[in-house]
Design a protein that fits this description.
This protein has 436 residues and is an alpha+beta fold. The chain is 41% helix and 25% strand. The chain folds into three domains: 157 residues, 2-Layer Sandwich (Beta-Lactamase); 110 residues, 2-Layer Sandwich (Beta-Lactamase), CATH 3.30.450; 156 residues, 2-Layer Sandwich (Alpha-Beta Plaits), CATH 3.30.70.270.
Length: 436
Amino acid sequence: MRSIRVPAPVRDKWQRWTVLLAAATQASAVRLALVDGDELLLVAASGEQRPYQPGERLALSGSGGYCESVIGSADRLLVHGPEADLTWHMLNPNWKLNPDMERGMVSYLGLPIALPAGGVCGTVSVLDRRPTPFAPLVEGLLGEFREVVEQDLKRLACEAVRAAFMQGSSQGVLLLDSRPGMRDCNQRFLDLWQLSGGELDPGEFTGTIRALAAKTSEPQAVEQHLSGLLADGEEGGSHIALADGRTLCARSRAARDEAGNVWGRVWLFGDEAEDGGLGTQGNVDAATGLATRRYFQEIGYQEVSRAKRYGKELSLILLRLDGLGRAIQDHGRGAGDQLLAGVARSGKQVMRNLDVFGRLEDDLLGVLLPETGHEGASAMVERLRVVVDGAEHLVGDEPVYVKACQGIATFSRELTTFESLMSLAHAALDMRGAGR
């Protein structure tokens, strides 16, 4: 096992702990040792006349040392008189080779340090040149020191995993804390958003969100949407139109502590044009660039959950295109896809960044409108009617005209699932179709 890389500020903190413990216990030595291959690396050590030095290495395997027994048994070890301690002799047959005895350390109390993923990676210990049973208070203080070390190692392990993910990910990664003082991102994120990094405020999340929103075609709506997600426990997905004409796909989920409390959010960003967004081709319909049925439903489940939990408004529009079947019959299925792609481009021009436009069937489109009531959904239907019904769509060189039949459903407490919202929208669509 290789020793965990410990930054200097953490080592300095641990060293201060050994100094305080040595003074409080009046012991000859207090030390913290981590396993490094076949050796013990003394990361921190203190005591009268400094019998051990930080950075010193001790033999581990077959050494007969006290720490070897602690690591091998993964249990505490108390020895106060090694010559007569038969339990110690049984635990470590090489006890006579004990290098600590050569330094006169005849009493020892040691506790194992656990790795975050399990196993033992080292020890914290108190040693004395006098036969000493060590009072419960000493063991309590040593246990406190061990807890500090284990919490630091856990944090370092998380930071190492996060750093590896940040640098190794092909996606843009942003981590925001809803409290001031923490923000992290990778270079891919900065490249996608065309940021230098100086625009992001590490001490205030609202400044970071405002900097992102300023890069979009709808700064106010995007800022409101991202800020709302930061305290949200649900997963989320959206397409964000940038002011330079590019579209980013965004997926996010809550960051939680061990107790399950939301403290921030992790976003993944991808360029829709470069790599299919987030590298999940199953999310985008290849012919039209719209969300697939599966992805549309996934976002729908998340938005219904948010609407139920936080009392948010939510609406759904279903669109069926009259004239699409005739275009396919006259010009082939490829012409139908071309027609739908044109409708998709026109429709996206009148939608917000947080709206989700999807292809649910060959001739059925859906628009999911988060934080939108029936009045807003009706206004969206009118905007879609203008760009769909009133537009000339080219199939090859031939103009084709279609009309959209719409059905609207707005979430209410009676609609407990996304399926019930879809059913209501289908019923409204069928009623409109029957009246045409």
